[in-house]
Amino acid sequence: MFRRWGTAVRAPVLLSCCLALPAGGPVAHAQAPAAAPAHHATTDERRIRQQLEAARTAHENLLAREQQQAHDLAERRKEEQAAREQARLDAEKAAALSAATVDATARLQRTEQQAADLDSRIADLHTEQAALRAQLAREVARLSPLLPLAERLSLYPADTLLAVPLPADRAVTGLLVVHGMMADIASQARIIHDRRARLLQLDDELAQQQQQMHHVVNERESQRDTVNRAARAALEAQQRSNAAAASAAQAVEDAARRASSVQDAIARIEETEQRAEKNLELAARAAERAHNLREASAARHQAQEMAAGGGPGITPVTGGAGAPVAGTVLTAWGQQTESGAATGVTYAPPSRASVRAPCTGRIDFAGPFRTYGQMIILDCGKHYRFVLAGLGEIAVTAGQQVSHGAAVGQMPQWSGGGSRPTLFVQLRHGGNAVNPAPYL
């Protein structure tokens, strides 16, 4: 109680004393301690103000960065969309250019077949000429010893027959022999005459065939140049395409390159596509869970397109209109070979013959493959695929859409020496080889 009272009493006394002091005395000393808190407050306020300014600047910079990132993202999306659109246009252009080669390639194939037939006919004429000349040489050699006698008989018949006196029966026998010999000489002379006439006819026919061959070859080279230019244009357009499907197409081609056989290549392609379809379905479900219906719809649409394949499927053709190359069939489907029954059709085409697509579809693989040489795998749709192996040059690339009958490449150059190039054509449905003949 006392201590409290004492403190309470002293406070007014001290305050009254301080108020009574002069301004220049102890009051000045009393005010100095009061000024220090104001100084500290100003420093704290300045520091807080600086922190606030720094935070505001950082916030503004962060907003600016976010806005720039959003702008960059929008630009990238815009560029990606433009690239996708350009890729789509390039792919459509490649497909259109491929379709435009169909008629020209068909004309070229007919010309190549005509040239091959003419070449075969000329070879047959040369063979016939050689045989006739050999027969004429043998007949002339056989007739030559009799010609002096025939000439003497024709000039001096009496002197020749009566050169040596003979009994009547011997003379009659001699006349009969001479008569028979003359008939044989006349017969042989007619044969020689006919064969020489045939040789002259062959010479004329050969001259005509060679002239026609020259015209056909010029036409063939001109048509081939036109088709090759169109095929290159389609290939370049496809190569410019960088659509989203390009990565899937590359994955399919890579899978085929790793395969050890055609059957394994087809199986790997099927497996890769099934895996891609499954991933697209998973992406569609994830997009649905995120309520992104547009992305889900796009993923499902792409999965459906992949499941349908690269084309409308295949249908039987009539009259051999779908033959992929000019020439003759060397080995038919099912024909017995050294390795068993043939699983495809092998053609013996002319040199540098154009090769046409046997169906409408998408190129799964195009390039060298094991011992098959240059090979193409063409997805016709509905799990049908054509395999074309043995080409010299390829005019398509993986992922490219081609029309039935469009140019896809050409056979190697062949001058008649060494092993003749052949085109092996196989049709597979899933993992099984089927007879391609009804579709060629």
UniProtKB/TrEMBL annotation:
State one molecular function term (GO). Answer: metal ion binding
Alphabetical list of CDD domains matching this protein: M23_peptidase
- Pfam families in alphabetical order: Peptidase_M23
Residue stretches making up the M23ase beta-sheet core domain: 343-436
Record keywords: Coiled coil, Hydrolase, Metal-binding, Metalloprotease, Protease, Signal, Zinc
Which portions of this protein are annotated as coiled-coil regions? 45-128, 192-219, 252-289
Identify this protein by name: Peptidase M23
**Organism expressing this protein natively:** Komagataeibacter melaceti
